[in-house]
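input
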Amino acid sequence: MPFHQRSQRWAVMVCHRRAGKTVACINDLLRSALTTTKQEWRGAYVAPFYSQAKDVAWTYLRRFAGVVPGVKFHESELYAEFPNGARIRLYGADNAHVRLRGIYLDDVILDEYADHAPGIWGEVIRPLLADRLGRATFIGTPKGHNSFYKLVNDAVNDPDWYRLILKASESGIVAETELFAAASQMTEDQYAQEFECSFEATIAGAVYSKWLERATQAGRITQVDADASLPVHTAWDLGFGDSTVIWWFQLVGGPRPEVRVIDHYEAHGHDITHYCDVLKDRAYKYGDGKNYVPHDAANKLLASGGRSIVQLAWAEGVKMTVVGATSQENQISAARKTLECAWFDAEKCANGIEALRNYQYEFDDRLKTFKPKPRHDWSSHSADAFEIIGQVWQPPKPPAQDVKPRFLHEMKASEIFWPEESGLQTRERI
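output
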């Protein structure tokens, strides 16, 4: 009730599982749609994925809006239209750059905000509210120290924000016997995150969270300025109809150097010329630095007259170095080794660090275990680009040599190793 009675324009609610936050927010949108004095009022519910919006919220919208005389439901586009011209529509943050651009909003719910890409709010959704003075509500459960965590902390004592943290141990919504049963069947971190709204719990299935936590504790996520005496390298993940990411880094010292990650950039919907311009606009001393791109950047594209991304970039004056393909397991292993000696600029790399923290193995609901490959979501692009760094900075290993096998009687005594505790002399061993 305090949420429904709020006067603030902005709201953030951290609620335990099965607390009813989605039901509350759908009804809040519904009341706003029915009581508005605005012409052609527009409300939106945005889940991390479009399919998730349909699975989670569409049933609730049909159920609660279905009692309104004259309401019309458009199943293919997932929206309800009311007799006064108001609409409530469901969206996914996974395609927000495409589906949400060019519209306006009067009210929006961002569900499971911890799973949204950090740039979606500022780059896409916030501008849609400006001319209509629209409202926004952020809801979800914690997933570490990410943008949702920052939002919750920034809202403390801010009169423009309504803030609610609802723990299962305090709400009384879920029976104590059920909470006890859940606690006995979940890990301590899982229970703390899902039912007690803990931002300190480890993200289940996180690929790099442990390594980033070590970097944080060691003070390696701080201010990291570029060294003007050293070349600056870049590592890319090129999105074909998807996000493109660039990391800037330097290698300092040796033979096992520090990897200083000094900058990060991500954008969507631009051609290679845009990213080449971004590279040129960064006032770094590239010198002998290299621009590392994944192996598929060398593939030819029909839309570019048969030229590859590498060729298009070279035409813009940006020389690229293609990194050979390897297994996902090798990429992750190399990235983890890199995180052991990496320093990050906390401000310039903030979105990239958040992506690395949230990069997770996909959970198999049927087998009830994590799949061997991470899931593809907003965090994948920064993670894939960082894995390129892991593949290129480490000292090269000498190539394996073919050695002709020899029988024991062909070998010298000095070439044979047996444990000394065997009690045998070298000649006796032979």
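quick obs: Residues 50-65 form the longest helix (16 residues).
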